[in-house]
Amino acid sequence: MGTESEIVDLISQGIDEKLGHDAALLLFRTMQSAYKLSQTEIVSQPVAFEATLRRMLGNEYADVVIDSIIDHLLCRISFLRDNGWTG
Amino acid sequence: MDLFDQPLKFVKRIRRGKHIVLFYEETEYARIILFEFLKSGLLNNERCVYIPGKNIKAVEREMSDAGINAEEFMKNELLFVHQVPNLAGYSNITQIASEKLSQFALHPWNKNARPDRLVLLCIFKINTQEQIRSNLEWERQFRAKDLKHLQGTMICTYPVSNIIPTISDSEGDYGKWISDLLELYDCVIFARKFWRGVAFLLD
């Protein structure tokens, strides 16, 4: 769908929409320091990312944030498909 | 559904024994979170200790404004407010801080009545590498050991004037300091501008 940074941007937008501006930056930094999960691993290991997110936020909040991330990813995929992206 | 009140709900629901580090930009926002934490405990008849940086009368007024009847809770020996010791001028701040805090954080009432909830406003300056080193020594040697043995829930606060640049630079002194604290605590709250805070579990 896109480069690692594009995907991280979309995940960030989904997080910030629910937790506030720059919340994603704080969350990623915390994941890196406390859970040793880098931004590369957030993209390459979505199951680990989701599990970490659930541990950090609890299921109730994590569900809301994950739904928001999915919305942003789907929106981007729809946009690319509608504009002829075949990659 | 917005989650901007998440830090408040987080401190209300926090499980016993967790140690939380709170980085904040706005004092008033941090105070709202801290008072919510104390209020939740007091309403459950938990013994709470608040160690602020100002005199007790001022704290009582602030608590009253936040809907906490501090005088009543203090009379019932549920709330203990102790002004933070003035540690300026001490050369060995870690040792002095540990001893002073032990007196009223570990045993504010008597040796058998330990606090269920403890709030400690930052007593450290963290402007130089030496001060950061001293702070981390206190965190490792005292807070993470002696205070953890209390088995109560605790919030330690650190003012961070601008969190984002500080935390973005993982190689800078403050970035490394925050990383170390994130490894030493059970939970973190980043309280930025009003209602722009997030809270995470770390363990």
Keywords:
heterodimer; A: mainly alpha; 5 helices; B: 203 residues; Rossmann fold; 7-stranded mixed beta sheet; 7 strands; 45% helix
Q: What's the overall average pLDDT of chain A, rounded?
A: 91
Provide the CATH topology of chain B: Rossmann fold
Cα gyration radius of chain B (Å)? 16 Å
Largest sheet of chain A: none
Number of helices of chain A: 5
Roughly how many Å apart are the termini of chain B? 27 Å
Mean pLDDT of chain B: 84
Helix content of chain A: over 70%
Q: How many domains would you count in the coordinates of chain A?
A: 1
Quick structural gist:
The complex is a heterodimer of chains A (87) and B (203). Chain A has helices spanning 4-19, 23-35, 39-44, 46-57, 59-82.
Describe the protein's architecture and organization.
- The complex is a heterodimer of chains A (87) and B (203).
- By secondary structure, chain A is mainly α.
- Chain A has one domain (4-82).
- Helix content of chain A is 82%, strand content 0%.
- The longest helix of chain A is centred in the last third of the chain and has 24 residues, at 59-82.
- The model of chain A has no long low-confidence stretch (mean pLDDT 91).
- In chain B, helix 6 (129-147) packs parallel to helix 8.
- Chain B is an alpha/beta fold and 203 residues long.
- Chain B is built from 8 helices and 7 strands.
- Chain B has helices spanning 6-13, 27-43, 56-65, 70-75, 93-106, 129-147, 163-168, 173-184; strands at residues 19-24, 48-51, 79-81, 117-120, 153-159, 187-191, 197-201.
- The two termini of chain B are 27 Å apart.
- Chain B is globular, with a radius of gyration of 16 Å.
- In chain B, strands 3-2-4-5-1-6-7 form a 7-stranded mixed beta sheet.
